[in-house]
Protein 1
Amino acid sequence: MNNLSKKIRSLCEQKHAVIMAHYYTLPEIQEVADFIGDSLALAQKAKTIEADIIVLCGVHFMGETAKIICPDKKVLVPDMNAGCSLADSCEAKALAQLKAQYPNAMVVSYVNTTAAVKALTDIVVTSSNAEKIINQLPQEQEIIFGPDRNLGAYINKVTDRKMILWDGCCQVHNSIEPEHIDALKQQYPHAIVLAHPECKGTVLEKADVIGSTAALLNFAKLHDYEQYIVVTESGIMHELQKHCPYKQFIPVGAICEDMQLSTLDKLYNCLLTEQPEIQVDTVIAKKAIVSIQRMLEMSEK
Ligand code: 13P
Ligand code: SF4
């Protein structure tokens, strides 16, 4: 651990703070964190964590989700500018208009959304539990699913539904083309293709395994295959390589620049100054917690 990381750890002790990080963050951030996980695990952990301060290293909606789950804790993020193209693709006002067109539809939203969108949502889902949660709803239930059209189309396929899909996407995953996978498959014909469901359907068709970051990691940890083509954001390579040092992981080369905004310097300053702090409007938070709570309950069933 370098000097800065040691100083970060000692500030955490002094201030009774915990660092939570997503698998896409920089390796040094994952190494200094108390807890790393996918979006679902981060939300579940926030619910039970004992701390006065949570520092969320990831993107803004993850900090907001933690704050909604833990309104009494101080939630900090190293860089307030760390946004998410997927969350940005769905504005609350526009979602409210779509809801008005389908008064009988339930709104199921991916966790990659703003607090205001979660407040208009009946159930939040992540890529870890979307299939499980949709399967718990009656087959005839009308559903608006947003904002990721790729995840939505994938869930429609595996649950045999016709959910109304919001036309949004993650610019990082959506920029991966099937030709990129073909080129890597030519070089590594025996490699297993691991893909995140935020990728286009034409990319997912080429995958051997489709799942959230945690699901992809678990697959690699639990199976004996030696080579994997990794079709998601490259930050996950750190955890893959750490747990499977003798396996070969070939990244498709997708980088989320927002995830890279959490650096050790900013993390240190954020713990020192206790800024920037996430604030969520209390009226919005009170509505949003209901849809998050439903997700946490339904993913236990
Ligand atoms: P998961 O870690 O839940 O798979 O989400 C991926 C992602 O894009 C987070 O922003
Ligand atoms: Fe958002 Fe995509 Fe970055 Fe995840 S990878 S934080 S979905 S922009």
Note: The first strand starts at residue 17 and ends at 22.
Protein 2
Amino acid sequence: MTELEELSVEEQRLEWDTPLFRTALTQFEQAIPYAEVNVSIAERLRYPERAVMVTVPIRRDEGHVDVFPAYRVQHSSVLGPTKGGIRYDPHVTLGECTALAVWMTWKCALLRLPYGGAKGGVRCNPRELSPRELERLTRRYTSELRGVIGPQEDIPAPDMATNEQTMAWIMDTYSMQVGHAVPEIVTGKPVALGGSLFRHEATGAGVVMVIERACGRLGWPLAEQRCVVQGFGNVGGIAAQELVAKGATVLAVSDISGGIYSPSGLDLDAVRAWVAAHGTLEAFPDVQHVSNHELLELPCDILVLAALEGQLTAENAVRIDAKLVAEGANGPTTIEGDAILGERGILVLPDVLTNAGGVTVSYFEWVQDLGRLFWTRDEIRARLADKLADAFDRVWELAEEKGITLRQAALVAGINEVAAALKARGIYP
Ligand code: GLU
């Protein structure tokens, strides 16, 4: 008897069934009672439509070959092509990509973008790869996905440890294979290649637009808020800068080397200059150095999570000393952590709303590429602010009307959009 045959049908776990996927699924189940979705449609939405697993061999600079597992998961194509980032990280798994693809579906639907969700990644340590190795990895990964990505099928974008350069390599590889330039195959490209102005800043700036809108509803002047930002990359770094531009005080930020804290507020220009010169926050002078765990528990008004998933858990949620948590990262709060924050009256601005600025400007980029007509930075910033304000208001009002959390409301709003479309289309054939 094989191991599989010994398991009952209920015990046989699906390949993507990991703790992060369980988080995404549990959030879905918690939203379903408030959504307008019938049993059959809900059942279909519990599964990704397609999950591709490949292995990517690359020749290392010293000459030998290493092979890395890689994935691309497409959760739902009901509303249009699938959309979502590509990450390079040692923790990338099929389950992680599936959970992140599910969240992309709700995020795109909530923002009323004509997309479904996808996510992909390569399980590797990008810090151990040279730029030439990263280029070979990206080009080979793109070739492996040739049959499943496309401007009308699935459009990648940056995520953890991928950037404009990575997207340029994807665009070039795909374009060389089809024989002409296809800028609309990826978003988050360099502006020189058909990338959008303001895409680089969009996720971090969007986080602060959502925070500002929430502060407006709560009657809190943003300029009086003391903020702690976990993460100092493309999301956290820009969010911190935008918070300061709006007059708020940023007390602490962190990166892979740990956190820096100044109770009177950090000089972010100096911090950015230090990171540009030294690579990390390590040894930044005249501040308190704290661990990532300590950073999360610092007393503040607004805690911005812009690093990794699974940061606020049953273990530390009891000690969080903030009034508002803004999820700039995807999935930074566990189900248990979320429940504790709720019981303690700490408001959580959920990821699918709070970090949606990135994919929204990705959508603007794709539209500009397809139309071969480009917009100004001010126009893009204003359109983004409108989109996020509209989504925020719908979420806030739904939460009040149904007496549910902002996370549940954001998921209900997203699920309702997808469910209505799937109901109208029907299950094929
Ligand atoms: N990776 C980003 C996200 O999680 C952006 C996706 C995109 O722009 O398509 O939302």
Note: Residues 200-354 form a domain with the Rossmann fold fold (CATH 3.40.50.720).
